[in-house]
Amino acid sequence: MVDAFRSLGCSVLSLAALGKGVPDLLVAINGNTTLIEIKSGNGKENDLQIKWAADWKGDRSVVWTTQDAANVVKTLCSM
Q1: Is 54 helix (H, G, I), strand (E, B) or coil?
Q2: What is the pTM of this model?
Q3: How far is CA 9 from CA 20, 37, 52, 70, 77, in A?
Q4: Would you kindly state where each structural domain of the chain is located, as residue ranges?
Q5: Which CATH class, in words, describes the domain spanning 2-77?
């Protein structure tokens, strides 16, 4: 997914090592930034991720596919 975001022109920073429910990536384009939780297949968020997201006051998205990534980038570019 990192490659997908980068191929769309984004800066990407992995946050995966932080754990504790923090999303996997910090993604930015055109001065807009969002946090990304990456899931595969039928993956669902765990309890820590759900709690973290509920407490977060900023932008965050969950992506499963490269099309999801493209949709996030489209949204970021329209802000």
Answers
A1: helix
A2: 0.93
A3: 28, 19, 28, 10, 11
A4: 2-77
A5: alpha beta
